[in-house]
Amino acid sequence: MQARGFRPILWGLATLFLVATGGPVKAQDLYIRNRPVHDAVVRGQEHFVPLEDLERYLTAAEIERLELDLESGAIFVDGEPLAETIMFGEPARLPLMAVARALGFTRRANPELATVDLLSPQAVKAKERIPQTREGGRDYQIAKAVTAKLLDKKGLDGDPEAAARVTRIGNELVAVSRMPSLIWHFHVLADPTPNACTAGPGFVIITRGLLDLGLNDDELAGVLAHEIAHGTLRQLEKRLHLHEEMWGLEAQADRLQTIESALQDRIRALQSSEQALLSQLQSARQGNESNSYSALASQLSSCRARLSRLMLQLETVQTRRIQNAREWRYHNDQANSPFWRNAKELDADIQGMRLVVEAGYPADGLIQALLKISRAGFQEFGDSSLRPDMEASDSHPSLPTRIKLLEKVLQDWRNSGWNR
Description:
This protein has 420 residues and is an alpha+beta fold. The protein has three domains: 29-128, no CATH class; 138-236 and 340-416, no CATH class; 242-335. The protein contains twelve helices and 15 strands. The chain has helices at residues 60-64, 96-102, 121-127, 138-154, 160-174, 208-211, 217-232, 235-286, 290-336, 338-359, 365-375, 399-415, and strands spanning 2-3, 18-19, 31-32, 35-36, 41-43, 46-50, 66-68, 75-77, 80-81, 93-95, 106-110, 115-119, 185-189, 196-200, 203-207. Strand 7 (66-68) and strand 8 (75-77) form a beta hairpin. The radius of gyration is 33 Å and the shape is elongated.
């Protein structure tokens, strides 16, 4: 964004959702992706917000498309002037809805809910369900195969209303995710135990037992967002890559061990030759055999030179073996240790919390869902009992641990000025 006397804002949010309740639109009734519009001056249906707050509502890329003239009040989007102008005062204010429309946002009204939404071009495009080539990707195909095996083993729930509800909420979350154009599939599994899992990007499963706990839409969105976050973080592909790196390191370790053994054999042979030459050299010296002594001395020098080179090669190979072992242990820790697995789960929890906010749901949906699961007598909520490709140890952190962390993150957000 270019502006005279106004510092460009470089950070913001990706999708704009303006939601107003019925009747005359008031500033306190307007929300942007769960964030209320603070300090807005309303003129008709327009909301004038402080320039300093613009980064709360638009992405950096969208802000870069704006040009503001703080002398005349003119507003340009992609070089084209708007009919609306800046409202001067302390602070100067921008007509948010007019700017959003010029940026390509789509207005959608829902009379039954008395809401008005302005959807970003990216969100509208995502709702068209345009497939990406990633559907041919390895992690997508593996996720598809794993999901098919799981559905074949346990079966679908068969409740069309439940399936439609899960798919509706899931697609709302996908629309604002990192993979909005990938076609996602949401299934309800005929399993009485509360659970949820993703086999990778594009496939999410929850159980009948989870729905039977009476999760509302906000809580269900929190659970689905966690699983979608796993998929968009491409953790399956990353884990596969780690295992491939480990297999490569193991193969390299075998080769290095073979080379080391061969070098040690050659070194032992040369050391034996060295000892034999030393013995012969001593005999030649004692017998005053000068010609033999010179030839033996030359052979000994050559033997020791080759031995020195082989010792250096052996040292290099042994150093590479040590480095190889360290790299293997590091990759193994990332792929299999409880610490790294728990870190990935908590990362998906936090990413999922951000995702529900972007989709218009309360941030504490997953917290409330986990509390409900805990009250039902379950102290863990993970996917190791669902996924046939996972070991029993591949589970989530305990519910108290996850709830405590999410509550801390939410409190940190609120302490920073966020109020939803």
